[in-house]
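Database export, one record per block. Field names are fixed; values are copied verbatim from the stored entry.
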Amino acid sequence: MPWVQITLASSPETSEVLEDMLLLCGAGAVSMLDGADQPVFEPLKGTTPLWQDTRVMGLFEADTDEESLLNYLQNGWQDRYPETSFPSHKLEILEDKDWEREWMDRFEPIQFGERLWVCPSWKPAPDPSAANLMLDPGLAFGTGSHPTTALCLQWIAQQDWQHKTVIDYGCGSGILAIGAMLMGAAHVMGVDNDTQALTATKDNAQRNGIDANKIPVFLPEQTPTNPVDIMLANILAGPLIDMAARLAQLTQPGGLIALSGILEHQADAVIDAYAPWFDMHTVTAKDEWVRIDGQKRS
């Protein structure tokens, strides 16, 4: 079934007004998108930032009367903002697509180092003898294409994991924990404050042929206190700084640490937070993001 889509130019101050108007008109879905390639990075606590040039998009069923829809929106806008002209807009018909199939057609295997691949499960692995992390659609599972995940997977591909114990702190869907296990780690724990993330990590591990007992998952307050050989944490700079002492406590002397989810201008602050315990000696950048890795002093 085709859909009617209206896209409206907006500012952060008027976006919620337009969203409410579209929903009152019967929109099946409303989305807000960046209209000028302006990234919104780590937000302040308690805030929900939007782009200065925001696009508010409403999706309506195909039999929607476009003229009536526009009249309603324009009248509602004039009632709210009588001194301001109605935002620029575009109405278009969207043909129905199998979006999952379209995503599947575009997703190709991604290689990290010599031995680690992230592969779609519906395509043959390029190197069957490698460590192949298999992904299925609809699993809330990162593909490794985001810079922070890619930086961590590159690091994972470079390490010796034999007989190593690991924590993936902020495990999300478990892609780093599963990558470490496939590369040969002896024991990996996933830690996250979101119970849905813990469930996703267990499910995704099993889909990759890993027994759930091999990657136990914990809420932060339930995490075993025995320090591990390798600490992975792909979160954000603010939480990483706040948790420096905690992650140091969970990493044994001589153990390795890899931190990501950090913007380039935040790197020094993160390094300073970990300096009391770690020699943070490598900063690797990709598309404004960095990974910082180092070793805990004995």
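Remark 1: The chain is about 30% helix and 30% strand.
Remark 2: Residues 66-80 form the longest helix (15 residues).
End of record.
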